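Co-fold these.
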Amino acid sequence: MNTREFDVIILGGGITGAGTQRDCAMRGLRTLLIERSDIATGATGRNHGLLHSGARYAVNDPESAAECIRENLILRRIASHCVEETDGLFITLPEDDLAYQQTFTDACRAAGIGAEIIDPDLARRLEPSVNPALTGAVRVPDGSVDPFRLCAANMLDAKLRGGQVRLHTEVTGFIREADAIVGVHTRNRQTGACEDFFAPVVVNACGIWGQHIAALAGVGINMYPAKGALLIFAHRINRMVINRCRKPSNADILVPGDTVCVIGTTSTRIPFEECDHVAVTPEEVTLLVTEGALLAPALSSTRILRAYAGVRPLVSSDDDPTGRNISRGIVCLDHESRDGLKGFVTITGGKLMTYRLMAEIATDAVCRKLGVERACETATTPLPGSEERSYEAVARKIWEAPSMAQKAAAARMGTGVSRIRSGKRSDEALICECEEVSVGEINSAIDHLEVSTLTDLRRRTRVGMGTCQGEFCACRAAGLLARAHGCVEREREDLSDFLQERWKGNFPIGWGDTLREAEYTQWVYKHVLGL
Amino acid sequence: MKLQEYTVSKHNFEECMKCTVCTVYCPVLQVNPLYPGPKQAGPDGERLRLKDPFFFNYALKYCLNCKRCEVACPSGVGIADLIQASRIKYDRTRPKLRDRILASTDLMGSFSRPFAPVVNAVTGLGVTKTALDATLKIDHRRSFPKYSGRGFESWLRKRAEEQAAFPEQVAYYHGCYVNYNNPALGKDLVKVLNALGVGVQLLEKEKCCGIAMITNGMSETATRHAKHNVEIIRKAVAGKGLTVVTTSSSCTLTLRDEYPKLLGVDNADVRESVLMAVRYVFERLEAGATLRFKPGFHKKVAYHVPCHMERLGWGVFSERLLRMIPGVEFTLLDSACCGIAGTYGFKKENYEASQAIGAPLFEQIRSVDPEVVACDCETCKWQIEMSTGYRVENPISILAEAIEI
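Predicted complex below.
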């Protein structure tokens, strides 16, 4: 455990980093992943959770579209417990040009995306929440994907293959030997402990923050930070993904995911310094609700749970002010050939959908440098949890009459549900009532998934993601974490931070029932529990 | 378009603040650990069921549909409605023969009534109860309601002319119980209303309200009944300008609220014209009508508010009427479910839970030791009479006994 030497060090615990660590580990390398915060805290966890069919890019960026559909089909196989195969609609509204539908469908077919023009009546039957005024509809193989779960599954697989993970640890500098990077200086942000780690290759998979990491290494990359804001609604109003059949624009994708649905996004260029502090503005909220209601009218009267924003990790390649026409293409930079710096690779651009391909490209580059010849197997080997495709089958195999919490756990963990310690009645007690998360599931996450804070726990289990936003589950989960870590004081602080973070997402949409609930939460924690 | 001016969700499930007060008021949760409780079964479960019907939980069958959760909810969430609606939508188990028999109160009534003395004797036998327990899983410890030889409908039909002579008229939805088991209650109502100068008419061929069908997985039959009943009520209300009065709190809740909320049968135009007779009588008295009471009448009455009367919010009318009777020594029993919940307590698997739920109420009745327990619900009556030995009467019957004509 105490080794400081690895074959490869991957910086960044987003989906690209986690995927790269898994791929490297599968090819027999000794790996270390370093993340300054938690997994999936950047763009990975701040998007729609859309399993793109690629249709959205088909007209403007056929190359990305073709990549998307290939990866879409792969993820359905290897990550079935993270994916919901909902299918999607591209709808034409009276104010849109119906002629675009043909251009769109042709482009989809050229990219290999199964797009089918369907009768608007059929669309209304398939998706009762869709704007009934639609004049045209195209059915595409969109779906939804849980990025937190996907990221955790990649990290878990890497760990099962001997990989090591250091979360809440930031890189403070690079260790150089002549013209080569040979390691990193790190500092744990929770304990302040400083450590050095060594490897002949370091991969920069830090997304938008890759610019900063590259600068630390003394090489230049210009990222193009484009903020996108999204809203989460408190329950699923749609069964299928709903898109607008027109040139990509604001707030034209509504994705059903788990117990909620998400509308987004906007696109605003922001200065690099703001990447760590993006906030959703009232104008963005108004725009999202107004435009969203055109996709599904029910959005104008459905409770909003949270607002959040992410930063797209686009690589600056031209000076388009909107950021929409920049290619979502994958960029892999070998800094040895680019900048004369050995042992340093940057993998960036791309998107959640193509993370596996990005990881493959980055791992190929690493293997070339290390002289390892072993083929990539990530496209065919299921992630841990996805060995069985249907969560219904998983649940039925284990329990004769599964409870709601057991069913929900199977839906979240797939076959990984067998990791839950069982036998004790107390393990079946509920921690999170909105999302049906049991004591057993929380403990299993603490045991296997590198949890140090309540927010980490939320990303792995959905604790606190439901309508109550931590009102009841946060203190219970804090109790379990305090027991696991043997420290009550630290957990009290963590609990405060967690509730503050939940409020941050409630604030921009703080009205109606969400405000009532937040007030109630405040009453419980401040006045009853004295926090 | 005014955005987000208000939010709507089916049965208001998004208004839930997770305050959990409903779980405190749920009588089932206190006795049956297999039941997930109203919050989880209702608004929490609904979000998962919207994702995938796979998340439907068959333990929802333990819900009594007493609606105490809805009474307790400070946010107006239709918790019991959510639970019953999801049972209607997702429960794919076909109702058992037993459940069909229990739910078909009108069929059983029309079959049993001609042979009432025989049926009553046979269902009272230990050997019958043992057989029913073994074959149909109807608990052997349960007493069965007695059937009456002559139905209320034919009794009133014979008096149609006499009733039509009254200056004012109401229509009476009597329900299966009055027609097949207890015509005396219907006669008592006629007596009271006649004393107020109001004549009583039948509706045009009323059918069972269907509440037992809804809870026993026979919602399609229940919907047919609902459409029929709303149609005949509409004829009485819109056609003849009548108010429809009732004496059963559960039938009333079904006619007014379950039809639109659970069965999707619109009754908005007639809903406000369907009233419990106690409310109708109370409002007449408030408006100046008078009743003459027997001098020297004395009765110690303990009033149990049935769950569905609580949901209607009308227990107060029965209470005020009973207190109005000179010579009534009145006790209001603590608000609690008696445990029977219609057909629920008849089922073998629910017997223990049913009796455990009712235990505190039975205890209180014994300590009050009244001459009669007043209650607006027939199934509460069977449960309380069987479990305590005290006689139970509808408030209308007690009123009828106390007045002079």
